[in-house]
Amino acid sequence: MKSCFVIFLSIFTISIVKSQSANNTIYLCKYDFIRQIDSTNKKSRITDIMYLEIGSESSKYYSHLKQLGIRNSSNDQAMKKPIEVMMQNHANYYSEAESEIITHFFKSGKIKVIDQFKNTYCYTVPIIVPDWKIQRDTITILKQLCQKATAFYKGRHYIAWFASSIPLKLGPWEFTGLPGLILRVTDTEEQFVFECTSLTANGEKNNIYHEYSNCQEISQKKLKELKRLRAIDLQTFDQIEYGVTWTQKNTDGTSVPIKRKLKPYNPIDLSN
Amino acid sequence: MRFGIFYAILFSWFSSFSQCIISGSISDSLQHLPIVDAMVVELDKDHTTILSFCNSDENGKFRLYCSRKYDSLYIRVSTLGFQAQTKLISSYTQKNDFFLTAVFTQLPTVTIQRKPISQKGDTINYIVSTFSGKQDRSIGDIISKLPGIEIGPTGAIKYNGKPISTYYINGLNLLEGRYAIANQNIPFDIVDRVQVLENHQPIKLLDSLLTNTSPALNIDLKSRGKNKFIGQGEIGIGSSPFISDDKISGLLFTKKIQSITAYKYNNTGTKLINEIAEQATIMQIGQNKDMSDKEDILSVSSLPKPLLPTTRYLFNNNHLFYLTGLKELQNKALIKFNASYLNDFDESSGYNRSIFFFPINSVAITETQKNSLNTNKISGNFIYELNTKGVYVKNLLKAESTIANEIGLITDSGNLYQKLENPFYFVQNNFTALFPIQKKIMTVTSLTTLSSNREQLDITPGSFPELFNNSFNYSRLTQHTFLGKLHSQNNISFLIGKGTTFLQLTGGTDFMFRNFRSFADKSISQVDHMLNDSFKNDLNGHSFRSYLDVTTILKKGKKQLTISFPLEINDINTTNKILNVVTKEQKMFFNPTVNMTLPVGTSFLTELTYTRKNNFDDFSQSANGFILHNYRSISQNDTILPRSLINNFLFAFSYRNSLKALFSNFSISYSTIWKNIIYDQLYNNVYIISKSIAYPNSRNNIRINTNVSKYFVKSRLNISLSFNYGISKSFQFQTNKLVDISSQDLSAKFKVNFDGLSFLSMESNSDIQYFKNKIISITNRANIFSNLQFFQNMKIYFFLRKERILYFNSYLNKVWDNTSNNSHSFFGDLGIKQKIKRIEIELSIKNISDISTYKSVYFSNNLEQVSQTQIRPRSFFLSLYFKF
User: Fold this and answer.
1) Closest chain A residue by Cα to residue B253
2) Is B33 on the interface with A (CB under 8 A)?
3) Residues B167-183, mean pLDDT to the nearest whole number
């Protein structure tokens, strides 16, 4: 009887461990992501909701609001809603949300970044682990005791708070390499704040998520340049990416290009 | 070279002294396979703080540089899917291997719970999802449960004792004062937060300059409540008699467009007129109350309204349609329109006993009544509003037509038939503009109202035969009245100031023209006879008020002292065309007001106010021709111009602590009202003749109100306790004798909302009211009458299955009265609701015990009315609520 119980327990444990080893989501962390669009204006902050889906072989980090916006936009297009209605619904498309999807492959230590404008672009690079300095300060976030770590990473000074009770050396965006999941990370000027709001174990599948298809390889530098252009000068970006020129009609019926308005750009990554 | 080797050896010696290296491999305990990416950490003595860390490589090897702070150190190795292992080892460089056992790692599942109530600056945020229950439907259901907020019987919202001035939906004031429309129609599940904006200044140009002490409310919608059409409807039928309750409404809230449209019908006793009632108005400095209120002069004798929900006693048939819309223009201006149509037919019947108390004795009149009222009301307004930091312009054009026909039948000693026709029309334009001129802010306001109120009351057979027909009975008496008004208020003001001191200079005029006419005719043997001049009035009056107001505002943070010194010159001219008498009067009035707002700490706020108001009252009170107000009441007044002086002192303090979810307020006011005329009432069997005579008199009032409300977050329990006490002393002439009337009223209310259990939710309202009146004559003989009433309304909801709700609604009322028999009534309703996706089906039995009559008691001055009202019979009702 005792041996039967031991066999049953072993089978049970192995089956559970096996279920953890397949690359479906074993842990889902939701982050509130607050970013300052204009580095000189503290009021120019927008909030996004980011999902970090962790599997056993890789993790995926993306904006939930962006995915929601893509779905809403697709639904409206499928229903052939008139352009006026779609313009009214514009707030539901979350166009300001982060469009980048980052997949982190644990085994190779590489990340694949996919972004979508008119075309889908991607690149794969080895992940750069921040040089974390562990501090003794602690706080509690989501009932987890978190310890402080600091690092200078991609042009900004960061303060991270990680939970050693969660043995996952991951975090939002490209933050990795601490002995526990990062639950809060912010740059010292608080222009970028990632705050974990929810931790869910065992596979809450996000039905809204839709993988960008047919990605076109591009260099990291070129994609950064495209993103900068889209943020600063949407008109020029649209001209390059979509071949569209913004014009306005004169009273005599002729069209002239709309005057370009340059907007501020404050990327999280300040490295070259 | 030799130095180099020496330094290298020295450096490595120091390094090895300050740091140790723990290396080794990590593998699983069963198969000894290497574990990749396991975490190796050096822990402090308390096991919680990490001092250094590393990860195992692809071969399971690790190399940890430890701090060598102590003689021994804790090394912990952990990774997902394996049991973590901690070892205590000596703090010198060594090799140590770890073998981990496969185990299921339970990762924590935690989600941030938003605080139900939070505060940011002057904004209190209530998270709707934390206050909602499965039984709730509209946002009004939630607002009524929020601590610190109460909704009155007519739908008016108060926050910590103060009425709200503005009701925003996503920051836009769509409904102006008619916010019951939003409360009734916005589903709670599309609302994220209800926000109270304390000290809200609705005019952006004055923002940060002048503090407004009135709170405002904002409904902050979720993203799924925005940018799409939201439709909902309800169809309900029941018996017996056949009853129906149907509604359909559509809502749209985008960034620049908002709209609420609805059609509603019911004959279940729900009064739809409350939904379109104006709940809040803002008056500018110097302005008097606008004259848009309908003044009813004639009436049909009717039963006092029972202190019950109208669904218990009102037999009605009403339709309501309204359309409200808002659009933001390119220049950020808003255009708003609001149109409504109401057709309301009400019937009520019962028995009424009116007792008039005198110092020595009392007179009682008993009537068995059956009344019906048919109202057709069309109203609409159009608003243009530009509210930016640079300019404020608002123009409101409002129009209303109400045609009411009321019929009353009294069946005690032969049938007495009363019919009142009452068409009322009014148009109003209200313009306000604020703009900066050379470091000053200039305000221009103009309010013009034109109204007409015509009334005709037929009494069959004619009443007051001794007065109207030499004591002979006659077939019919008809009283006609007409009141036409033109009221125009215009002013201009300049606000000067900087930092902490502001000065507002206002100059303006107030012109009012009133025409009051009345006459009566009687019918004898089907022949109409016009009554003589004793029963006629034809008064024209115009008043002109010009005023200059100097208001000083001293402001420091939230502390504010406002002192107003208005000086008025009033010119009144009345012409009595019947008596051919012209009366002219000119008076200068000084009506100062002082208001001081003083916060104490971050949670307390004290307020001290003094107001003085000299006023010429409605000159139609000086009409000396007889006016038949209803079949048993007739009046004749003195011809002097009525005048009043009101002095009012108010002290109030409020406390709010959003962290503790505790809100409370207290206010005490003392007022004296001096008048130059007094009423004398003469009683002749069933008839009352009232006369106003020149006799200066005053009335003194003290009123104390207090309220405490506390929300217990964990148990989701909201408790609210309020206490109101009032005492007043006044004089009255009764049957030509001067009497002293002293009244006391006291009420204590206790409200509980409980949503803390998964299977039960409960709402209870208890109210105890005490009223005592003492009438004392000069000879010190007194007549005392008092009354105590208790009301208890309890709603209990049982959540049987996921989407099934069983509810019980009870209403208990007990009356202890020293002049009539004590009574008690108990009503109960039972119902069940089933939700199926977006549909909710409800089956209910109303008035289970089939109570047929209800006794209520009502007091005013020397009158007590005890009535028995017919109650709606037991009914079965099935309704279907749906969203689309």
Assistant:
1) A88
2) no
3) 91
Cβ–Cβ below 8 Å for B108 and A147: no
pLDDT of residue A204: 59
What distance in Å separates the CA atoms of residue B237 and residue B477, rounded to the nearest whole number? Answer: 43
Q: Which residue has the tokens 């000879």?
A: B779
Comparing CB atoms, the residue among B55, B226, B257 nearest residue A91 is: B226
Instruction: Decide if B416 contacts B370 (C-beta within 8 A).
Output: no
A20 and B81 within 8 Å at the Cβ level: the answer is yes
Sheet with B162-163, strands from edge to edge, namely B149-151, B157-159, B162-163
Q: Is residue B686 very low, low, confident or very high in pLDDT (cuts 50, 70, 90)? A: low
Q: How confident is the model at residue B468 (pLDDT cuts 50, 70, 90)?
A: confident
List pLDDT tens digits, range B289-333.
665 677 888 999 888 888 888 999 999 999 999 999 999 998 889
Cβ density class A148-163: b for 16+ within 10 Å, e for less: bbbbebbebebbbbbb
Query: What is the 8-class DSSP label of residue B380?
Result: E
Write the single-letter amino acid at A220. Answer: Q
Contacts of A118 (CB under 8 A, 6+ apart): A241, A242
Contact yes or no for A31/A161 (Cβ under 8 A):
no
- C-alpha dist (Å) from residue B18 to A134, A135, A258, B65: 18, 18, 66, 10
Judge residue B672's burial from the number of C-beta atoms within 10 Å of its C-beta, 0-12 exposed, 13-18 middle, 19 or more buried: middle
> What is the distance between the alpha carbons of residues B855 and B869, in angstroms, rounded to a whole number?
7
Restricting to B residues 277-306, those with a Cβ less than 8 Å away from any Cβ of A are none
Record: contact B110-A199, CB cut-off 8 A? yes
Chain A residues near residue B28 by CB distance under 8 angstroms: none
Beta strands in B411-536 (DSSP E): 416-437, 440-460, 476-498, 501-524, 527-530
Quote the ipTM score.
Answer: 0.81
The amino acid that residue B62 corresponds to is F
Residues 6 or more apart whose Cβ sits within 8 Å of residue B242: none
- Per-residue pLDDT of B77-136, as tens digits, reads 998 888 889 988 887 888 889 999 988 878 888 777 778 898 877 889 999 988 988 889
Query: Which among B397, B373, B369, B370 has a CA at the least distance from the CA of B383?
Result: B397
Cα separation, A42 vs A161, in Å, equals: 23
Residue numbers in A near B79 (CB within 8 A): 167
Q: Which region holds residue A17: left if phi is over 0, alpha if psi is between -120 and 50, else beta?
A: alpha
Q: B108 to chain A: which residues are within 8 Å by CB?
A: 142-144, 165-166, 199, 201
Residues of chain A with pLDDT > 70: what percent? 88
3-state secondary structure of A205: coil
Threshold 0.95, pTM exceeds: no
How many CB atoms lie under 10 A from the CB of residue B136? 20
- Name residue, tokens 């033109």: B486
Q: Which residues contact B98 (CB under 8 A, 6 or more apart)?
A: B24, B25, B26, B27, B38, B77, B85, B87
The strand pairing partners of B145, in sequence order, are none
User: Mutating which of B36, B50, B78 best tests the A interface, going by the most A Cβ atoms within 10 A?
Assistant: B50
CB atoms within 10 A of CB B13: 9
Q: Is the dihedral of CA B144, B146, B150, B155 positive or negative?
A: negative
How many angstroms separate the CA of residue A222 from the nearest CA in chain B? Answer: 32
What's the half-sphere exposure (Cβ side, CA atoms, 13 Å) at B336? 24
Please report, in angstroms and rounded to a whole number, the separation of the first and last CA atoms in chain A: 66
Handedness of CA A194, A195, A197, A199 (dihedral sign): positive
Residue of chain B whose Cα is closest to the Cα of A26 = B107
Write out chain B residues lying below 8 Å of A88, CB-based. 227, 254, 257
Count CB-CB contacts under 10 A for residue B483: 22
Least Cα distance to B196 among B246, B267, B146, B139 occurs for B146
Q: Is the pLDDT of residue B685 over 70?
A: no
